[in-house]
Amino acid sequence: MTRGAAGEGRGVPERLLVKVCGTTSVHDALLSAEAGADAIGLIFAPGSRRRVDVQAARRISLSVGAGVARVGVFMNQPLDEVLRTAETARLSAVQIHGEVSSLYLGALACYHPVLRVLRPAELAGQGTTPEGPVTLMLDAPNPGSGEALDWAALRADFPAGAWLAGGLGPLNVAEAVRVLRPAAVDAVSRLEASPGVKDPEQVRAFVRAAREAHRALQAESGSP
Ligand SMILES: O=C(O)c1ccccc1NCC(=O)[C@H](O)[C@H](O)COP(=O)(O)O
Fold first, then answer.
1. List of residues 6+ apart from 92 with CB closer than 8 A
2. Please, where are the H alpha helices in 51-195?
3. How do residues 111-129 score in pLDDT, each as one tens digit?
4. What is the CATH number of domain 17-221?
5. Is 27's pLDDT higher than 90?
6. How far is the CA of 146 from the centre of ligand 1 (A)?
7. How far apart are the C-alpha atoms of 197 and 218, rounded to whole Å?
8. Model confidence over 180-191: pLDDT tens digits?
């Protein structure tokens, strides 16, 4: 991955990962996998309309196999709950929202790759997302709300190597990729027919638009 200081002369990442979040069924997991997604998100955060139970998540994870990353999404949940869920649901990474300590993140990172979610107001001064098991991810203040961020305003502070979420969909992902050059894009609301149920056309169009945008950036910059 090409990295650099936040904002300054950011390169084009070698790969753009695409994550389709809020998967609640084997049917939708296979749809995302067939559309070419690199990762699916399984939400365990309390109160989410897309929350999935651990046994259903396990069936979903096993259905897509090792070729698609299974990211468990948690919000202010105890460490032992996250670790037990990750094991039972066969997660390959955990995404952590909310107020947690660096000790908590460090302990989790001993066992699983961690996506640490930040809101726009927390971005300043983060620098580059660190090499290693904790990767930064920018999301809207109200996750899963479909609210898009002001990418141009965040450009100077967006850490190289970070993931991007927040109101992304087939119609705007190309612009977000062009402005912020994230290492990965993640979406849920704009890919749904109803909460927790995917719209196949939107999922396919999102993956396609993200890939095309990344290819165009690579071509422009002369990267292979
Ligand atoms: O989607 C939810 O219901 C949710 C609830 C609580 C914590 C996280 C949640 N979603 C996490 C995601 O990774 C979403 O894909 C991300 O917030 C983007 O959502 P959207 O803006 O709706 O595309």
1. 66, 69, 70, 71, 112, 113
2. 54-64, 79-88, 102-109, 151-154, 173-180
3. 999 999 999 999 887 766 6
4. 3.20.20.70
5. yes
6. 8
7. 33
8. 999 999 999 999
